[in-house]
Amino acid sequence: MQRKIKVLMVCHGNICRSPMAEFILKDMTQKRGIADCFYIASAATSTEEIWNGVGNPVYPPAREELAKHGISCAGKRAVQVCKADYEKYDYLICMDGNNLRNLSRIIGADRDGKVSLLLDYAGRNGQAIADPWYTGNFTATYKDVSDGCEGFLQYLKENGKL
User: Fold this and answer.
1) Three-class SS of residue 38?
2) Which of 17, 21, 36, 126 allows an S-S link to 11, with CB 3.0 to 4.6 Å?
3) CA 94/CA 96 separation, integer angstroms
4) Which listed residue (16, 17, 27, 96) is catalytic?
5) Catalytic residue at 27?
6) Which of 11, 16, 73, 94 is catalytic?
């Protein structure tokens, strides 16, 4: 059996974009019959959604948007990225430039080229996935995240990693 591809989706609070990305990618791999090839998780660069060591659940409008597409994120709670995650994961995929900067403060230099932006995989280099916490547009976020996840799977396939 081949080693699993370990993916960590990263955003600011781990209650909207990164859990959406985690569960959308899990759903895509499940539907393609390749879920066993992956270990997929998500985390925050901040502790804003973590209280006394317990993370908040996925923000209700994000959870509802996933549910519209038949995707459950039940049981997911916010967690923060830690320095050790750099060694644990093959890909640390951020939602925007602020996430990239904050992630680098936590993990240090990206010496193995593991850190990227999700929309880079969709050919939208340098573009951010807008935070629906502020925009209120969870449908647009779902579409952007889906585009990025599709692009990521295509990237893995084209580069012989799948």
Assistant:
1) strand
2) 17
3) 6
4) 17
5) no
6) 11
Segments forming the whole domain that contains residue 146: 5-158
Contact yes or no for 90/113 (Cβ under 8 A):
no
Catalytic residue check, 131: yes
Residue 42 CB-half CA count within 13 A = 30
Strand partners, 40: 7
Distance CA 16, CA 136 (A): 11
Number of independent structural domains in the chain: 1
Catalytic: which of 73, 131, 144, 149?
131
Q: What is the pLDDT of residues 78-127, one digit of tens each?
A: 999 999 999 999 999 999 999 999 999 999 999 999 999 999 999 999 99
The verdict on whether 17 is a catalytic residue reads yes
Q: What is the pTM of this model?
A: 0.97
Give the model confidence (pLDDT) of 41-86 as tens digits: 999 999 999 999 999 999 999 999 999 999 999 999 999 999 999 9
Encoded tokens for 100: 């990239």
Question: What value does the mean pLDDT take over residues 19-33?
Answer: 98
CATH of the domain at 102: 3.40.50.2300
